[in-house]
Amino acid sequence: MSTPNSPAQHEPQPTPAAYAAPTSFTPPAAPAPTSAPLASHNVFALLSIITVCMSPILGLVLGHIGLSTIKRTREAGRGLALTAVILGYAAIAAVVVSTVFVAIWFGIALTAFGDLTHYGSYTDYGYDY
User: Fold this and answer.
1) What is the pLDDT of residues 18-72, one digit of tens each?
2) Contact 78, 45 (CB under 8 A)
3) Long-range contact set of residues 121-126: C-beta below 8 Å, sequence gap at least 24
4) Contact 49, 79 (CB under 8 A)
5) Buried-most residue among 63, 83, 100, 104 (CB within 10 A)?
């Protein structure tokens, strides 16, 4: 007894015909530009990011000038100016914190070793000059 779905009763499938090669090739059209041309960067923003490494105060001032002109003119470079401002404030804060630390350290050192200055003076040995 054979079932209707048995492989013996199916006819063999014909092999597909070979595809013909294309006769001509036309390249696809170039896509249309989707963005506007690059805007020019603000000069103050570029100067601020360069000078903040050498002089944090100058870089900070140039960064603030760059941010204000970028806000007015909509030029590119806001990220550069903002980075210079952040680095400028961080450098100034580091200088202030290190100055306070050194002042406290010197204060502690002077109070700890300040009492040593009068030891060994001539008045301790009975000499009265």
Assistant:
1) 666 667 777 777 777 666 566 688 999 999 999 999 999 999 999 999 999 999 9
2) yes
3) none
4) no
5) 63
